Amino acid sequence: MKKKMELLFFLLPVIVLVALFVYGFIGWSFYTSQTDWKVIGETGKYVGFENYKILFSRDRTFKKALFNTLKLSAIFIGCTIPLGLILAILLDLDIVAKKAFRIVFLLPLSFSFVASASMWFWMFSPEIGVINSFLKLLGLGFLEQPWITSGDQSVFCIAVAYIWQFSGFATLVYYAGISGVSEDIREAARIDGATRFQEYWRIVIPMQKPATLTVLVILLMYSLKVFDLVWLMTGGGPGKSSEVLSTFMYKTTFSRNFFGRGAAIGIIMFIVSLIIILPFFIRRGESDYE
Amino acid sequence: MNNRIGRNGKWLTKTIIYLVLFIAVFFYVFPIYSAVNTSLKTNEELKYGPVRVVKDITLANYSSSFEKIRRPMLNTIIFTVFATAISSILGAMSGFAFSKMSFKFSNIILLFVVLGFYIAPQSILIPLVRFMGNTGLYDTYAGLILTHTAYGVPITTLLFKNYFDTIPDQLMESARIDGCSNIGSFFRIALPLALPGFAVVAIFQFTNIWNEYLYGLTLTNGVESIPLTVAIANLKGTTVAAWNMQMAGLLISILPVLMMYLLFMELIVKGLLMGSVKG
Question: Distance (Å, rounded) from C-alpha B92 to C-alpha B79?
Answer without folding.
Answer: 20
